[in-house]
Structures are given as structure tokens and as C-alpha cells.
Specification:
alpha+beta; 5-stranded mixed β-sheet; 5 strands; 12% strand
């Protein structure tokens, strides 16, 4: 089952922006799992310093707003001391961010300066001539396909009622197995596996949006999840 989404005004734009933010956050989370030092040249001492500042700020904000006041000291006095401490900690945090911006601009841009491109931004700045952007989002029960040309924007929804991961695995096996010196499967079987899975993926990912694509022009494809393993 495949349907075009026609919701209230602004709904399609919001879905696209949420998808872009999700991809940005996923990228940052993956980089967090790797070494900041190797990726950005960022010393571990700075990351630890930033982490400790965040903990201290959270601690004093909680003390201030949760009413954890010591007996015998006026509330106004304690709130004032908390405000002074928070001001000092946040000033240090701002100084650290400025240091990142100057000395580690790639980390700064990813960590603090994430900008999500808008639909009009794609149409005005990214696409040239008859180029078309196809961007996928793979959810638990549906695949959403964003199709953007210079003049149009459409979201297509396909129910994920088929074994997507198996299709992708079969496609990759049909492509790579012949080059792995494994004679357990015949060349004809691998060819059939490839052509079958390739067509199955085409039916689900491309065929439903064919009428939205120009007769001529370049396609810019942004995959998601396991779709990243498909050589479109």
C-alpha cells in the first residue's frame, strides 16, 4: 500500500525538517561513539572540562529551583549565591564554546551550530536545472519518501509490510558473492538473486514515485538506515 500525504498546511514542511534534524542528531551520536581526538583533534581534557561544567550547572539550577535551602540562611541570600555561581559557570561555558569556534571549528559547527536546510533552501540553493532530490526516512512501520524538484515538494508513504532488510541483504549477496571465490552458489543463482531483489526494491522505493520524477535530469538520492547499503 502506498499513499501520498495531504495534511494540513505546514505538516509536510515540518516532517521534512524533523527528518533532517533526526539525521543530524544521529550523525552527532555516531561521532560521539568515536574518538573526538581522532575526529576533530579535540583533547580529552576539554571534553572532560565541558562535561564537568554541564554537571555543575545542572546541580546549581536544581538547587535553585527545587528549594534545597539550608536552615538558618535566608532564601534570598541562597538564591543570590546560586545565581552568582550559575553566572560564573555559564560564563566559563561561553568562553569554552568560543574556544571551540576558534580552534576546533568542525566540532563547533556540528555541536553548536547545526542548521537544518529548509525545503525552499533545497529548491533555491541545492537543486540545479532538472535535478530532483529523493530523500528517504525508514520508520518502524512505514517508509517516507521526500521528493523535491525546483518547483514541487511531495511526501510519499509506503507501508513497510515487506522484508526490507532481507531484500537488501539478498541484493548485496547477489552483487558481492561472485567476487568472494565461493562456489557454493552458482553464478546463475546469484544473478537471479540479484535481479529479483533489485526489482523488489525498485517496486517499493522507486516505482511509486516515478510519476513525480522528470523525464530527464539527475537524481540526488539520500538514503536512510539499511537503504544506505543499496548502490542506487
Amino acid at each position: 500500500t502506498a499513499t501520498y500525504l495531504r495534511k494540513e498546511k505546514g505538516y509536510e514542511k515540518l516532517m521534512f525538517e524533523v527528518n533532517e534534524k533526526t539525521k543530524n542528531q544521529f550523525l552527532f551520536e555516531q561521532i560521539k561513539k568515536s574518538s573526538y581526538k581522532n575526529t576533530f583533534g579535540l583533547p580529552d581534557s576539554l571534553r572532560e572540562y565541558e562535561h564537568n561544567l554541564s554537571i555543575d550547572i545542572a546541580f546549581y539550577e536544581k538547587k535553585k529551583y527545587m528549594g534545597n535551602y539550608e536552615k538558618g540562611i535566608s532564601i534570598d541570600s541562597l538564591i543570590g549565591s546560586f545565581d552568582d555561581k550559575l553566572f560564573d559557570l555559564k560564563r566559563k561555558q561561553d568562553d569554552l564554546i568560543k574556544l571551540y569556534k576558534t580552534n576546533y571549528p568542525e566540532y563547533y559547527n556540528l555541536r553548536f551550530n547545526q542548521k537544518v536546510i529548509s525545503i525552499s533552501g533545497v529548491q533555491d540553493s541545492l537543486l540545479v536545472g532538472t535535478q530532483t532530490l529523493i530523500e528517504y526516512f525508514v520508520g518502524d512501520s512505514s517508509i517516507f519518501t521526500f521528493v523535491i524538484t525546483k518547483d514541487t515538494f511531495t511526501i510519499h508513504q509506503t507501508e513497510k509490510d515487506f522484508p526490507l532488510n532481507q531484500y537488501v541483504e539478498n541484493l548485496r549477496k547477489g552483487i558481492s558473492q561472485p567476487f568472494q571465490n565461493d562456489n557454493s552458489i552458482s553464478a546463475d543463482s546469484l544473478n537471479n538473486l540479484y535481479t529479483q531483489s533489485a526489482y523488489q526494491l525498485y517496486e517499493k522505493l522507486i516505482l511509486p514515485i516515478v510519476e513525480l520524477l522528470p523525464d530527464q535530469g539527475e537524481l540526488i538520492i539520500v538514503p536512510d538506515g539499511n537503504l544506505g547499503y543499496i548502490p542506487f
